[in-house]
Request: fold
Amino acid sequence: MDIRVLQSSDLPLIQHANLENLPENYFLKYYLYHAMTWPQLSYVAVDISRPQKTPYDQPKIVGYVLAKMEEEPADGVQHGHITSLSVMRTHRRLGIAEKLMRQAQLAMVETFGAHYVSLHVRVSNRAAIHLYCDTLGFHNEKTESKYYADGEDAYSMRLELSDIR
Ligand code: ACO
Reply:
């Protein structure tokens, strides 16, 4: 497995993975905006064990993290935000999401001096909540009522990045 920075040519595959894995979907231009504005912050996991039969074969992208810096932070503190994270079903529970998150967090600190990283997650998403809270050390700041289009609440989570600053 190769974890590398996201390239613009990956974007259709990222959009495909997002549609497969999450109900929160975006126009291609929103992915492009991330890739152009914060090119250091988003990563993909590529399955390099898959043989490339022709030079035109696409690498198989099995996970991604789409990340950004908050442009106008309400608290005035420079911080990052995870827009979207997902790993294909065939490749889950192999530590890929943890690696993607740690790469994005490190880049937020090294490139932009981020003090913390924030994200939203559905209150029913046990897998992601385990990853964020137990594996990575996020804490729930508040619950946002009916945050999602279908009426589900979100946990608004945050991880201080001081340890890796
Ligand atoms: N139930 C409980 N714990 C789980 C589960 C699960 N289904 N899946 C993973 N975990 C735990 C692992 O055991 C591991 O814990 P450990 O550190 O105690 O050993 C930890 O979470 C990290 O596991 P990874 O293997 O790194 O996670 P994985 O690569 O499987 O990806 C993810 C986790 C991203 C949540 C995946 O299940 C997925 O893509 N789900 C659908 C999309 C999604 O929910 N994305 C997050 C939405 S929130 C957002 O985008 C900001």
In short: The mean pLDDT is 95. The helical segments are 11-21, 28-37, 96-112, 126-136. The pocket of acetyl coenzyme *A is lined by residues 21-22, 82, 84-87, 92-98, 119, 121, 125-128, 130-131, 134-135 (CB under 6 Å). Residues 96-112 form the longest helix (17 residues).
